[in-house]
Amino acid sequence: MKKKLLVLAALALAIVMLVAACGQQPAAQTAEKKGPAWAGGLTPLPKEAVVKVGMKAVVSDAGILVGMAKGYYKDLGITIENVQFNSGQEMINQLAAGQLDVGAAVTAAGLFNAMGRDIPVKIVADKGINVPGKGYYRLVIRKDLVNEIKDFKDLRGKKIAVVGTASLDEVYLVRCLQKGDLTLKDIDEQVIRSFPDMLVALGNKSIDAAMVIEPFVALGIAKDIIDPWKDPQEYDPEAQIAILVYGTGMTKNAEVANRFMVAYVKSLRDYNDAFFKGNNKKEMIDLLVKNSVLKDPALYEKMYPTGLNPDGYVRIKGVAADLDWYKANSLLQKDMKIEDAVDNKYVDFAVKTLGKY
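The chain above was modelled as a monomer; its predicted structure follows.
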């Protein structure tokens, strides 16, 4: 009888311990899933996701570079894989094919045509706008031509370079020319595929002007090659210069897409705090020197700052104007509306999670 009681007591103790262990397990799992404080407690993905991002690691990629350096993407279960491309069209092709998840790009006929084929590729966030009076993307002219090219009409007959046609670069030039009642037919349009090569061409006087982005504007000025000429506020104040695009791998996976955007918008806010509020600016410059292609910290103080919306939204009016231009020039294979191209739901999620800036 005594032996039987001991067995029953041991069995009861085992049951109590098992129940206690089972009761503790959910608490442990909850602790493991607790999200970072900066993200309002948003839980990370249960399984790490690798997100392939096409970018050139320039300053306008701060929303990605800052988040990678500060661990915001990692905090939410995302690992960024940077993929380099030789052309914007190559990037668009891979976004459409699902071989690239996120693209740091500009509007282009090829991008809208991919959307027109019902491929779920969407413009989802801002990646660069001009700050009034300090446009980071602008038409620059050769320094020796400042007395010859004083107004928009003086661009007639000049050799002007863009990095690509049927894209934002060409659209931007067209708007500049319109201020002087000119069209592309009134100039000698040149295509030079890289901004560094544009500076070389300006330096050897083989072109007269070019659409150039920072830091190459500051570099050209420092080398006494170019004049920054007129601020873009005069010819394209509503422009959306660069955009963040989600490919099919993201538009079909809301859990990853939303968390990516939360980390992206948080990074944009850190950038704005540094460059427009002066908070931890040196730390931000050091971070970008380490992680971007611009390695000279002095240039960050000299160049025109890239505008990045701290709430992430693109300028709908600017994207719509680009879309209208592609339509008007018969570059689209199918008619489409701005609602077909831009999807704000991911930024909406990020702002709801982080609060408004």
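The longest helix spans residues 2-33.
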